[in-house]
Amino acid sequence: MITWRNGTVSGTRREWPGAVELDVSVDGASAEGEQVRALAYPALTGRPRPGDRVLVNTTALDLGLGTGGYALVVALPDRLPPDPELAGHLIKARYSPLQTCVLGADEQGSPHHDVLRDADDIGGMPVVVADLHSALPAVLAGIFAAERSGDDRPPAARQRHRAEPRVVYVMQDGGALPAWFSRTCAVLREAGWLAATVTTGQSFGGDLETVTVHTGLLAARHVLGADIAVIAQGPGNLGTGTRWGFSGVAAGDAVNAAAALGGRPVASLRISDADPRMRHRGVSHHSLTAYGRVALARADVVLPALAGEFGAQVAVEAAPLGGRHNLVTVPADGLEAALRACPARLSTMGRGLDEDLAYFLAAAAAGRHAGRLLREVPSPA
């Protein structure tokens, strides 16, 4: 199940909050001493230095995975980190060799426990739900495009004003478990587009940790002061080419959670006119299953107003969702420019903005709709 290798750190490539990318010379590879790209999370393993012997998991590399194509540093066996001060009692990645203890925002002993103990409502907050992590920066581009008044500069380049929403990412555990894996979140945070991340379920490493998506939304609203939340899995979608066997099915559960807490669910469609797999052409079967079968609560399902035959195809394929949801057509004008101004690299399944523009326009349209809904919702106290 796991391919283990010993190796030696030969150099550091780059780093971002929570993660360090390394070059590691691996023993026992097809070519002895082969250099591989590896990733370490210093909070779990300590900080690797050139010359350190490392134990790595090379399974993802051996499988040729895209998003997860790293060797992962499991330990520095000759230089273990000091014992941490265990501030909390939430165990995540439970009963795996790297189970980690975190302080949950919703647990007893947390400074936020009193706020969250009886919290039961998010006050109509718009909650954008997406299938893939790659939708996150596009959703944010749409949110801020909805709030600009003729000013196309990114949020960090303009003075903050009340109309500029505070956006919190609520991360599900269907993809990567460590939030630190996401360079997208790090870039969006640095640029001022993302206020914070809440990691839920088995995922960890966010600004706040919670047990469920429900308490994640409550923490986003009542602890972090979110005006809008975006829910999606971390990087690394899992799919089997079957109707039900994909991690994005949790998007339907997220719609239900947002509605149960008095939020305003906004469903971002996964669409593409470039994906080589027919099940993802037009409206992906992921969206049709998650929103059409799993989501029992009513959501605003956003249709980007796309021109031509492809736009008509998307409208026809999404039409059955109108039986249980509100289909909302959102103009796409100006969204491409907003996407090109995004500080984070836009990429989905290896395709960039120019290769799969429709995918990113759909996510941005959902963000635009959420930004417009925000005008109907009072800010959190």
Question: What does the model show?
Answer:
- The chain has 381 residues and is an alpha/beta fold.
- The chain is 26% helix and 24% strand.
- The protein is built from eleven helices and 19 strands.
- The protein starts with a strand and ends in an 8-residue tail after the last helix.
- About 3% of the residues have low confidence.
What attributes characterize this protein structure?
globular; 19 strands; eight-stranded parallel β-sheet; single chain; 26% helix
Number of strands: 19
**Strand order of the main beta sheet, please?**
11-10-9-12-8-13-16-17
Content-based structural category = alpha/beta
Rg over alpha carbons: 21 Å
- SSE ordering: EEEHEHEEEHEHEHEEHEHEEEHEHEHEEH
Q: Please tally the helical runs, counting DSSP H or I stretches of 4 or more residues.
A: 11
> Low-confidence runs (pLDDT<50, min 5 residues)?
149-153, 157-162
Q: Please tell me the overall pLDDT.
A: 91
Query: How does the major sheet shape up?
Result: 8 strands, parallel
Brief account:
It is built from eleven helices and 19 strands. It has helices at residues 42-45, 59-63, 113-117, 135-147, 183-190, 213-222, 250-260, 285-294, 308-318, 335-340, 357-373, and strands at 4-16, 19-26, 34-40, 53-57, 71-75, 90-92, 100-102, 126-129, 167-172, 196-199, 208-209, 228-233, 264-268, 271-272, 282-283, 300-305, 326-331, 347-348, 351-352.
